[in-house]
Design brief:
It holds the Pfam family spore_CmpA. The protein is mostly helical. It has 2 helices and no strands. It has a domain of 32 residues.
């Protein structure tokens, strides 16, 4: 997950901004669907 997205998600969770959390979550799934199976983020498999 890109660092800018992590930072925005943490900020949204701290503010309890449900609209922003949902928007960022949708962005993450859209980003992952565009990456394809061969370029999966390896930091999530730790």
């Amino acid at each position: 997950m890109p660092q800018w997205l992590c930072n925005q998600l943490m900020r949204a969770f701290q503010k309890k901004d449900r609209r922003q959390i949902k928007l960022l979550n949708d962005c993450w799934y859209f980003y992952r669907s565009k990456q394809g199976p061969k370029e999966q983020d390896t930091s999530t498999s730790l």
